[in-house]
Design brief:
Helix content: 40-55%
Oligomer: single chain
Number of helices: 28
Bound molecules: glutamine, zinc ion
CATH class of the largest domain: Alpha Beta
Strand order of the largest sheet: 1-14-13-12-11-10-8-2
CATH topology of the largest domain: TIM Barrel
Length: 771
Amino acid sequence: MTTHILGYPRIGAKRELKKACEQYWSGQIGIDDLLAVGAQIRKENWQLQKEAGIDLIPTNDFSFYDQVLDMSLTIGAIPKRFEEVANATTNPLDLYFAMARGYQKNGLDITAMEMTKWFDTNYHYLVPEFYKNQKFKLSHTKFLDEFKEAKAQGVNAKPVFIGPVSYLLLGKAKETGFEKLDLIDDLLSVYIDIFTELEKQGATWIQIDEPFLVMDLSEKERQIFERVYQTLADKFPALKFILTTYFEGLHKNASWVVKLPVEVLHLDLVRGFEQLDTVLNIVPDTLKLSLGVVDGRNIWKNDLQASKAILENAISKLGVERVLVAPSCSLLHVPFDLDNEPETTSLTSEIKNWLAFAKQKLTEVAVLSALVEEELPEEIQSFYNANKLAMDSKRNSELIHNEIVKVAVGAISEGDSHREASFETRQPLQHDALKLPLLPTTTIGSFPQTKEIRLLRSKLKKGEITEEAYNEAIGQEIEKSISWQEELGIDVLVHGEFERNDMVEYFGEQLSGFAFTKFGWVQSYGSRAVKPPIIYGDVSRPEPMTVAWTAFAQSLTDLPVKGMLTGPITILQWSFVRNDQDRETTANQIALAIREEVNDLERAGIKVIQIDEPAIREGLPLRKEAWKTYLDWAIKAFRISASGVGNQTQIHTHMCYSEFNDIIESIAAMDADVITIETSRSQMELLDAFVNFKYPNEIGPGVYDIHSPRVPNQTEMEFLIEKAAQLVPVKNLWVNPDCGLKTRGWKETNDALVEMVNAAKALRKKLEVVA
Ligand code: GLN
Ligand code: ZN
């Protein structure tokens, strides 16, 4: 059975590409050094795949920043504002990085292309920009260079491209008077040029990714898909196209997608297992299927026995020559190599034995192909046996199963997700308890994480300083920050989050059921990688996590200090999750742990508690029909975490993205007493949602953008607050920045907050009358 993979991680096992890119950007290394690092990573990746026994090896899946941006450069979709950059630079890579990161040199100041999430992953791509009557043209030959490079290394190369229809659907029309898909014919002609070049160089297999095939599509979009693939089939009778779909099943699109004239159709059987029966029933004789049975989105070992059964079933219907085996999607979304992980107290040998990263998944794919043969070589048999043992160990391990947690989740009652009284009753009680002025000011939680603080933490980890010395230093930071906030005149203070590395990691490290890796990096965007925790078992909270520092901060002032927690959905969303339990159950377990923390904070005298949920929106399923189910359990998990406190305790939540108009009712249903949100970049455009929907509780639309070092002035913030006051009752309005300040410097933070407090004070006088 033929084996292939859709794509491989490219950041490097030890983030070599990240480091090289950043050194290149800061001028520490030259272009040749950077290119050499890229070539080395590709070579190693190809070599690994060959050795593992992968038959068709992807090329053009490497990227210095993002594969969608690669495509934009290839077809010459370069936004007009970069024309001058193109003239000012000699190397195409400099233009490329300018498109990704913006360009402030040679008297130019050009903003970067917009970046957004790649479907429901935590990877971000650069959004193509389209204009009316735009013409595309083959402008860059990275795909060809990589193909030749692979061939020269004896690699059976299969160039990979984002498909033309998905490419257009991923982009944004920057002008009115046309539709993106109007550009398809011109774009298709460039794809034809690309494939012609590749065919000349001896390519036979080409992978085209059309992830939009799993989404809800219109009749027009369907017709375009049909036309595009018919055209390619007619033009290239000798090329074997592998059309890939992933992140979901094909659902009702299956009936026509199986008729597209390609050699192979790839299905994600991890996210869309239910599609297999349908597809097997309707697949025409001319089509081969690539079955994505190895999870490309998660880090668990494959259950080879189960996958083998799936493959054998398909083979019994189609014959072995019409079935290929693969991971469900590109391996871009999993870390590089489990072999690099040392056994630690967190990642024990028992847990390690349940995991497979990208390199291990290559072997799984190859072993699966061998398993369906009649004769099993001994080493395959023993790999298979070891896999069965690992599956048993994971099913039965005491590390995973905690009866107390299971009982507690089973015992969650309707009342657990409701506050004692309604917001109308709670609001006056909270106002009495807190004695805040009109338009109270606050911040989102974190203050600048300076080099010194990060150094302190790394010294603690290396054992170069004692825990006492570390705590002493953190305590001093908190003291400074409390008296500084008092001087500024902020009304609800925060302790500053100096003791936290990352808002999920900090909690994961203190909760049971989480493991952490040393090198489990996954690309998030460009040179940025994240290291998600692994939730392997039932989640519980052995001890309070934030109470000591919060109570310490509260002891320093008479003003209220806001306790600061990460919410259950954000912890879930930014971790690798269990595959032996549904996400809802895991979310409820985390919710109960956070609820205990919330209750303990209240008991310690904390009157205001913020539960951050910046990731609620990104958890939305790809298909709208599944939204409601998700939102119901996600919102409920948040409410469980927040509802254990008395009426007088004020619960805040925070979210930082601007597109939430379509889920505003669910956000209101979270029933937080106060929500702080991002709005400043869009000049309060977000508040449009409040024209038709009366947000019932208190709200702090961010009055300045913390993502930029620019210090906003009092007048512009007053303007924004007044704008908000037209849509939200003044008594419900808070004044705050739009996100945490940890990435900012102290000077700009101080200056901006001075202006913000002044704006609030000035408007208090003016708006008192209205309130
Ligand atoms: N409390 C967190 C902070 O201030 C919130 C971060 C976030 O919204 N992503 O850093
Ligand atoms: Zn935020």
